[in-house]
Write a structure and sequence with these properties.
Layout (H helix, E strand, L loop, with lengths): L11 H4 L2 H6 L2 H21 L5 H10 L7 H11 L3 H11 L2 H4 L8 H37 L4 E6 L2 E7 H26 L18 H12 L13 H27 L7 E2 L20 H21 L11 H28 L2 E2 L1 H9 L7 H12 L1 H18 L3 H5 L3 H6 L2 H7 L9 H14 L4
Helix pairs in contact: 3-4, 3-8, 3-10, 5-6, 8-9, 8-13, 8-20, 9-11, 9-20, 11-12, 11-13, 12-13, 15-16
């Protein structure tokens, strides 16, 4: 019976995607190790280190069909090194003339690290695809609602008008930054690991770096200048990047959930019959995807400092840092896939209630326009006087339940300089969204430059 939610047939699809789980499954992991061994043999054959016929035989044998996972598990439990049982079984699957050349010049960490890098590459491709889908959805929302007025909120209270497109463009701006970071993250992380016992490639004599370069070409990975057995910053950066993406998705999920509150109801998750229904309260349409996004994002961000700990390694191979990576990296990718899986359809089908946004703007008796009124009065009354007038009028409106317009027009200083029509204009939410439209346009222009129409 599975103990992990990721392995549970009941829960797994709520927290990760099947494709990402397959990538980081034992089968995916073993195949990445076999891919390393086969590529190493071909690279060494190309450099004249081992016979070409041996490389061909090793490549042919480097399939999951050559492995007995249960027997591997037993040997792993005895020897304590994950690659030893795989090398034994791959060797046994090769003809005698090739068997002696399996794992030639490599060490366990070379296989583990390069295999992990191959999984990371495939995982980042999946994440990139889904992130691009999220960005495309944000582009559409920001463009559609560029000028849709909405109450801006600070400290969870009405502050001043914004547009919903402005809010979405803020999310889009961050998403574009994360997307722009990704090529650099890949360039640094997707490097082959091949150094042998202490990283010196000594068994290959003068052919060491030549073989490593050939291995990198075989696997389409970067050939590093030096072995990185204890240099883990690039792997940590991958998880930090995933944490940043998770932070954005968590922020979006939190905002949508807050705007779904009964007294607000300005946006809603896409409607699916029966989804979000309460077992006790038939009237409810609960957020379902957003709580998942928020929870996943919280867990994903918590993995970042754990991954940072793996950077502290002693000598030429650390004692206990690698097992931390084996736990953290797969989980981070699974969680990131799950957050994106929930976020993309929510954003693509978000139900935006523009009527309720306008209702909210007008629900506070004009108080949300206090800054606008103060700014309008200041050129004639002076800023200090305008601030005092509006503060007094706002307090009177809140105490009496009247509209800010009425309490303003009771002030002699206001009446001396402004007629009721001018006050009405200052109280119009649509006239006080500032540079929202221009900023939305700027973010959309950058999105277009990055390939998102």
């Amino acid at each position: 019976m599975p103990a992990s939610l990721f392995d549970s047939p009941y829960y797994a699809d709520q927290f990760s995607t099947p494709a990402m789980r397959a990538l980081f499954s034992d089968e995916g992991r073993f195949q990445s190790w076999l891919d390393f061994e086969a590529a190493l043999a071909r690279a060494e054959a190309g450099c004249g280190v081992i016979p070409r016929s041996a490389a061909e035989a090793i490549t042919e044998a480097a399939t999951l069909d050559s492995l007995d996972p249960m027997a591997m598990r037993e040997v792993y439990g005895q020897v304590g090194f994950a690659i030893v049982p795989l090398v034994k079984q791959l060797t046994a699957a090769c003809p005698e003339h090739a068997a002696r050349y399996v794992h030639w010049g490599a060490t366990t960490q070379d296989v583990l690290d390069t295999g992990l890098v191959l999984q990371i590459r495939a995982g980042l491709e999946m994440i990139e695809t889904e992130l691009d889908g999220v960005i495309a959805a944000l582009v559409s929302l920001a463009r559609t609602h560029r000028d849709t007025p909405q109450a801006g909120r600070t400290f969870q209270q009405h502050a001043a008008p914004i547009t919903f497109g402005y809010k979405v463009a803020g999310w889009l701006d961050e998403a574009l930054r994360h997307r722009a970071r990704l090529p650099g993250v890949k360039a640094r992380a997707l490097a082959v690991q091949y150094g042998g016992a202490v990283g010196t490639l000594a068994p290959l004599r003068e052919k060491g770096t030549e073989v490593r370069a050939a291995l990198a070409r075989e696997l389409e990975l970067r050939d590093p200048d030096i072995t990185w057995h204890t240099g883990r910053d690039s792997l940590a950066e991958v998880i930090f990047w995933l944490g940043l993406v998770g932070g954005l998705l968590g922020r979006i999920g939190t905002e949508i959930a807050m705007l779904m509150r009964s007294e607000v109801s300005e946006v809603r998750e896409p409607y699916v019959p029966g989804r979000g229904a309460s077992s006790a309260m038939p009237q409810k349409r609960n957020p379902i995807a957003c709580p998942q996004i928020i929870a996943i994002a919280n867990r994903l961000r918590a993995l970042v400092p754990q991954m940072m700990e793996s950077q502290i390694q002693e000598h030429e191979r650390g004692i206990a840092a690698m097992p931390v990576e084996w736990m953290v990296i797969p989980e981070a990718f699974l969680l990131a896939s799950g957050a994106l899986m929930h976020a993309r359809p929510v954003l693509e089908g978000l139900d935006v209630d523009t009527k309720n946004m306008r209702r909210t703007l007008h629900s506070g008796g004009g108080l949300i326009m206090s800054e606008a009124v103060m700014s309008g009065l200041a050129p004639r009354l002076g800023r200090s006087t305008a601030h005092e007038v509006v503060t007094t009028a706002a307090a009177a409106a809140m105490d009496s339940g009247r509209h800010l317009r009425d309490t303003l027009l009771e002030n002699e200083s206001v009446l001396a300089e402004f007629n009721p029509a001018a006050i009405d204009q200052l109280l119009d939410p649509g006239s006080y969204t500032g540079s929202c439209g221009a900023m939305v346009d700027a973010v959309l222009a950058r999105a277009k430059q990055q390939g998102f129409e």
